[in-house]
Amino acid sequence: MRQVTATGSTVEEAVQSALAQLETTEDQVEVNIIDQGKKGLFGLFGSRPVVVEVTAKPGAIESAKQFLQGIVQNMGIEAEMDIVEKDGRNVMFNISGEKMGLLIGKRGQTLNALQYLTQLVANRHSSHYVRVILNPEDYRDRRKETLVRLAERLASKATQIGEPVSLEPMPNYERKIIHTILAENEDVETISEGEEPNRYVVIQPK
Questions:
Q1: Domain endpoint, select from 93, 113, 137
Q2: Residue ranges of region Jag_N domain (predicted)?
Q3: Containing structural domain, residue 103
């Protein structure tokens, strides 16, 4: 938590001094007036400056990290997090440690639910949309390989039986993998149905 104490002849002057030290803007901080100050005799004798304590509000990524760390600790998991930020809108939490299987859950269901909640927290503290990806022990790369094989297998099934095939609910970026993999398949087409966070892909024969 970034916090500074600053002084000035007025509250505004003290706050502006604190903002300059924190290199931020007034809408991104909380201000606590420690001392209202006092004007001395003739503006000189017995005067006392205004004192303010200014605390920077946690940003989107910091808030998401704090939330995630709290959940992981409550699950009894010791983990280290390496945050990779791309253009301020895409953030990946590379997580390492023991009990990663517990964090991932069956077919990644626990991980996807936690990722959804972490993303909600991040966007509650952001002025623009932030996409959060949780990646314990490179799970996302392994999951992508699984999704590629799944997409190809179910596309073949849809073609053979001549009926649409629905996949399990997936987060947006996993659905995008399915759509991308099958985009060049001349025998099937894909659509997404349902509402978040239970939106899923349907593979249907052309």
A1: 137
A2: 5-55
A3: 60-137
